[in-house]
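Subject — a protein and its fold
Encoding — discrete vocabulary of local shapes:
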Amino acid sequence: MLGSIAFQLIVLVIIFAFITYVCVFADPETSDVALFCNVALPSRILKWLERILGQKHLDRLSTLMEHGFQLIYLVVVLGSWSIVFTYGYPEIEKSSYVRSYHQRIGYAVFVACMASWHCACHIRPGNVTAKTISLFDHYEYDNVLYTDKLCPTLKIRKIARSKFDRSSRRHVPRFDHYCGWLNQAVGERNYRWFLLFLTVHVFMCLYGTWVMASLMYGEILDKDLLNATFFNAASGVEVKADFVIVFHYLFMRHFHIGGVLLLMLVMGVTLGIFLGFHLYIISLNMTTNEYFKWRCVKRWHKKERLKYMDAMKNGTTVKKFDSTLLSPQVRDGDVGCIGTSAGEPPSAVIADDVILDPGPMPMNIYK
């Protein structure tokens, strides 16, 4: 039984590490695994569903699934809090290691959690139209990611750092990304609320992890479990306690609390990494959209630089750097919470029939 529990934990850690790598760190343009999971697999699933359901029913399912992540959020968060209120609070009342005032703090954290999510879901990111364009036109064009041109969908001038969001059919100023948990884009007017949502949930998960772990630790001390002797019902043998045995005992005795503890720990670490990423790009005055597109520009510059150096070694004729002739063109693909979404990853494009000196790496004027 203990070996089975340990094996299950190892499998969960491996799955979590794999999902984190694919969704957060891997780039679909350089990683075959990320390309398959983020692009090829979703595309195949959509084609499979289209053959089974037909386009009409698939469209209806897509409309329903627009709120799918929000429903998952409510099920997970409300379900976890119901377990905390039902099973965790009675243990707090009995514990000498977790004070009763944490119950009142828990209610406040719950209200803050739901309020921050509600605000982040309903406060709009802004909408650039012919009438409102002057309200959002704050930035000059960098002529790398943003150039003075018309939005092909709305036929209005595409201001710098903006992007048309296909889900909401809005042209979002200072577009950051589309968030499925909020079912809307994150942009100029709601980015601060998105950060508040993230911060509150990171605190909620880490605080909840500490409280639940303190309850478990308190029981270990009160019952001196690390020095206890346990009876293995399967083998009929008495065994001395160790960390794994005590963990298994507490997890089975407080199964609901243990499940919520593991969930909050995993989500706290994941959301903490995500919040850290956003604080990092804030320090660079960048958006998620710009961060991933600048990675494409850097790959483009490295590729063209290598082509140029090889040509110089081989004595091939090259054209000198000319900023009016040579500039990366970056596709305006969809950007979600974990980067470029399936179907149209942004990438720098340049013709392969001529070798050019790429010159210095383009500068990000918004830093």
User: Anything to note?
Assistant: Residues 32-65 form the longest helix (34 residues).
